[in-house]
Design goal:
single chain; alpha/beta; UDP-n-acetylglucosamine1-carboxyvinyl-transferase, Chain; 2 domains; four-stranded mixed beta sheet; binds shikimate-3-phosphate; binds phosphoenolpyruvate; RNA3'P_cycl/enolpyr_Trfase_a/b
């Protein structure tokens, strides 16, 4: 079985294409959990084909079917063990921890070896502080978890650190309306990835759930979900790779249907960031048109605290263009699919670029930039490593990307779409 892909782009580096992106992984994960909590009142439209979403959907469907089979026999439900393996899906792992904590049953929640290194203690302790019965099966603070229902709420108030992952907060907010006492959540310290919390609250509001966000405290009273449909926009994080392609091509005209200017996704900030690189975004005909215009790049500092999933895309664009820059807000990168800082440092070294960590910022030093004839990129089980480095095929004759299947996590058709845009994509 071929594991890698070899990318090249022969002839003029001109891109003129239309790419239909799949639904946002973040919006879908929320929509599915909200739909499950609403017990059918809420439906989801434009479900993503991202593997993380497909897995979460399957898990929730199976749990729903089991629950129907067992009816209201509570003591029987809590005796039956359910093994839930969420693979590499971090958001789904966090959302399910909260979701399962309020179900009636016994659950063993696990994932990949990397998942067992991604912290979850902050969320588990918060859930325990309001009555959840959760224990760590291997290492304190990390999956796998054993979760035992039924849930008896002991408190309405919960304090949670905001600077490690916003997913913990979103997970709690989604279960809040279903809790007998509701929830008053106090965020301690800085809130990272804030647009994702806003996305959660907006999607809840779309199905009739009111919230009160006052400074660092969010309150959600017990409420029932309206009967409603949640429409999922295409994935802006996936769109970012097309901005990168436009930036590294000589000429580009790319249409991404379905994306709009008023997105719930913080990663739509890519339009603003890429304007600095001469990539314009025009919203018309129900989508966004990307065009490349000549521009001197001036911006030297990028704060990505609100859009951490764009980090690899933007760092690689700057590296490939030889644009020295400083990046801040990357604190959470080390606990994602891989240690993304280390992965970037290792792979950028292959084109002579340094990514230097200093206090809380990162300096990109492109003084040694060179493009070899061929480069092989390791992906460290991280879809974003594969997709962020793929556009380099517009600068380097042959780019081999290892473990091509990693892209399935969020963008399964990535390689097909590259081919459609004129790249040669050969499995090796
Ligand atoms: O809530 C979400 O859907 C996500 C939140 C972000 O995580 P952190 O809050 O851990 O930064 C982001 O990186 C992840 O891909 C998706
Ligand atoms: C961090 C990511 O995902 P997750 O945390 O859901 O694994 C991502 O998609 O970049």
């Amino acid at each position: 079985m071929s594991k890698n892909v070899l990318l090249s782009f022969t002839g003029n580096k001109q891109i003129d294409t239309e790419i239909k992106l799949t639904g946002s992984k973040s919006e879908c994960n929320r929509a599915l959990v909200i739909s499950a909590l609403s017990k059918g009142s809420v439906s989801v439209e434009n479900l993503s084909v991202a593997a993380d979403t497909v897995t979460l959907n399957k898990v929730l469907n199976e749990l729903g079917e089991k629950s129907l089979e067992l009816g209201n026999v509570s003591n029987l439900k809590s005796q039956i063990s359910n093994l839930v393996d969420i693979g590499p899906a971090g958001t789904a792992m966090r959302f399910l921890t909260a979701f399962l904590a309020i179900q009636d049953g016994k659950f063993f929640l696990t994932g990949t070896e990397r998942m067992k290194q991604r912290p979850i203690g902050i969320l588990v302790e918060a859930l325990k502080s309001i009555g959840g019965n959760i224990s760590y099966e291997e290492n304190e603070g990390f999956p796998p978890l054993q979760i035992l229902g039924p849930f008896k709420q002991t408190s309405k108030n919960v304090k949670i650190k905001g600077d490690i992952s916003s997913q913990y907060i979103s997970a709690l907010l989604m279960i809040a309306p279903s809790l007998p006492l509701g929830l008053t959540l106090e965020i301690e310290g800085e809130l990272t990835s804030k647009p994702y919390v806003e996305m959660t609250l907006t999607m809840l509001a779309q199905v009739g759930i009111r919230n009160d966000w006052n400074e660092n405290t969010i309150t959600i009273e017990p409420q029932t979900f309206n009967s409603a449909k949640l429409y999922v926009e295409p994935d802006w994080s996936a769109a970012s790779y097309w901005y990168a392609i436009a930036a590294l091509a000589d000429e580009a005209s790319i249409f991404l249907p379905g994306l709009n200017g008023y997105s719930l996704q913080g990663d739509s900030k890519i339009t603003e960031i890429m304007a600095n690189f001469g990539i314009t975004s025009q919203f018309k005909n129900g989508g966004v048109y990307l065009k490349k215009e000549p521009k001197q790049i001036e911006r030297k500092i990028f704060d990505l605290k609100e859009c951490p999933d764009l980090a690899q895309t933007i760092v690689v664009i700057c590296a490939a263009l030889g644009h020295d820059a400083t990046f801040t807000g990357l604190e959470t990168l080390k606990i994602k699919e891989t240690n993304r800082v280390l992965a970037l440092q290792t792979e950028l070294a292959k084109i002579g670029v340094k990514f230097i960590e200093k206090n809380l910022s990162y300096k990109l030093d492109c003084s040694g930039l060179h493009f070899p004839e061929k480069i092989t990129i390791s992906t460290y089980e991280d879809h974003r490593m594969a997709m962020a480095f793929a556009p380099l095929a517009l600068k380097i004759n042959q780019v081999e990307i290892e473990e091509k299947q990693v892209v399935e996590k969020s963008y399964p058709y990535f390689w097909d779409d590259l081919e459609k845009a004129g790249f040669s994509v050969v499995s090796t």
